Q: What sequence folds into this?
């Protein structure tokens, strides 16, 4: 295959393979190999379930198109909203879609040199792990059904979490982030997606989701680090979090990385009641209003992740 050009987020956008209907596309699509964009389909291409499953099974969860074709791609997806159900013979489309969201979230920001292969390897490892763990996979599939926002939010959170620090147990961080809100399975969707204030009973239910998560994940062979991440992802460095009002000194770096990534993921994702913040606006909010919730030692990593100038991150850190 001929190399085309390096991945550049201003020139290419990612599209989940699962999003492609079994229709003809008329725009060029590319795959990413070792940080390079290589042509995959050119012009007219008839998609089939078999081809998409082949791509997913070889860990190609996303395809790319040129940013200049954004309007054309959006029109195509809107015009073909009737998606066929894939018969994937045991291939969990829900999980594949979640992993592709994981990859796509990371591609929303400039990839640091040599990071693309590492990131893709992490996605592949997650995918393989989840296929081999039917009970964990089943919990995630239930979550995708119960509250798709939580499912995709967890995948996006994992994508940001694995890039924030070199000093964490990376695999645990990825898995802990993917599973951190699994306790939401016990929460009613109306509470999960409520914008307004919660009644005391509902608030009690919300505060219980970390412990519910641990309950759901017990006896599944997960590491103590992963369980600790699930239990403490709503603690705050100032001691005002829940369930144990731990302070920064009591929280592992893995927990602090997860809480940090989770806030960023929530801010840059649109909700029915709120437009998405830009990455820069999210950074501004996190370094000011939301700072008491967060580990300030991670601001520099976030600035790097979203491509902010070093001078700005230095000013913030000082
Ligand atoms: Fe949570």
A:
């Amino acid at each position: 295959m001929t190399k085309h050009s390096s991945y550049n987020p201003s020139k290419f956008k990612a599209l989940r393979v699962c999003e492609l209907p079994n229709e003809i596309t008329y725009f060029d699509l590319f795959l990413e190999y070792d940080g390079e964009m290589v042509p995959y389909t050119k012009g007219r291409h008839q998609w089939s379930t078999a081809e998409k499953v082949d791509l997913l099974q070889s860990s190609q969860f996303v395809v790319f198109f040129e940013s200049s074709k954004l309007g054309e791609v959006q029109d195509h997806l809107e015009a073909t909203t009737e998606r066929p159900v894939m018969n994937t013979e045991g291939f969990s489309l829900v999980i594949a879609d979640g992993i592709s969201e994981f990859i796509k979230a990371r591609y929303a920001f400039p990839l640091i040199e040599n990071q693309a292969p590492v990131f893709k390897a992490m996605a592949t490892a997650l995918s393989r792990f989840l296929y081999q763990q039917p009970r964990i996979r089943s919990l995630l599939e239930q979550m995708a059904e119960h509250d798709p926002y939580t499912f995709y939010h967890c995948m996006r959170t994992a994508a940001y979490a694995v890039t924030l620090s070199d000093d964490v147990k990376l695999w645990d961080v990825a898995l802990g982030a993917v599973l951190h809100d699994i306790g939401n399975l016990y929460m009613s969707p109306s509470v999960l997606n409520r914008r307004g204030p919660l009644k005391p009973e509902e608030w009690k239910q919300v505060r219980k989701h970390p412990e519910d998560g641990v309950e759901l994940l017990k006896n599944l062979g997960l590491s103590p680090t992963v369980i600790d991440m699930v239990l403490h992802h709503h603690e705050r460095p100032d001691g005002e979090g829940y369930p144990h009002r731990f302070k920064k000194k009591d929280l592992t770096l893995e927990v602090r990385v997860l809480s940090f990534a989770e806030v960023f993921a929530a801010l840059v994702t649109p909700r029915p009641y709120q437009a998405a913040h830009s990455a820069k606006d999210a950074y501004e909010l996190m370094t000011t209003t939301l700072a008491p919730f967060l580990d300030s030692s991670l601001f520099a990593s976030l600035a790097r992740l979203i491509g902010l100038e070093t001078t700005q991150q230095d000013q913030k850190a000082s």
Notes: The longest strand covers residues 36-41. Residues 181, 209, 233-234 surround fe (ii) ion (CB under 6 Å).
